[in-house]
Amino acid sequence: MQADAWSPPSVLLTVDLVILTLREGRLCVLLVERGEAPFQGMRALPGGFLNHAGEEILDAAHRELSEETALAAGWVHLEQLATYGAAGRDPRGRVVSVAHLAIAPGLPEPVAGTDAMDAAWVPAKDVLSGEVELAFDHRRIVTDGIERARTKLESSALATAFCGELFTIAELQQVYEAVWGTELDTRNFYRKVQAVEGFIIPAGSGRRSTGGRPARLYRAGPKTVLFPPLIRPVPPATEESTREERE
Known about the structure:
The chain is α+β, with helices and mostly antiparallel strands. It is 28% helix and 27% strand. The relative contact order is 0.15. Mean pLDDT is 89; it is low at 239-243. It holds the Pfam family WHD_NrtR.
């Protein structure tokens, strides 16, 4: 075959956003209702195509965060998650998505924009269970994003991204419980958090009333890597399955 007989295939590039926050103690993911084909009327992750060939991927992620949801990107933790490029993932042609994970505390009610008819916070468990159906391969992307967050909570300070500037240890525990989907022993959690030097630091003498004795306030410390790590508990169902496999 002659070299000049080949031409590169036409491939389109998009960014998709897995935006997580805690609302009323529950881990929630932001979904939009698609306003146009394909999958018009179905829920999906916020995202879209690059504006032009010169737009940087991270810039596109920040732009979509603002355009689709009217959320400011400046104080949102944003990191690249993974690339999704299966040949049949989009009926419009060969479309590759660079997905990003975004996390912030107490995000407000979203406002839909551009090609989205609506935007809303949806409990993550409803997406993971399949109770809420998503367009494209977005359920897989959400699953990967939540698992990334769950894993990073063990060995990094990512949990503080779900908190405000000041927080109590009880509020930090609520983050771990919501993201991991399991209850934690309060005394054990307090001991483990305090054992990680530089993870959180006292915020002066300030305290917050929690209905009982006022709780001490903390802020994120300088350490981004946790040692020793906070290991995620093994769910009871998994423990039973492991025992059955060994037997």
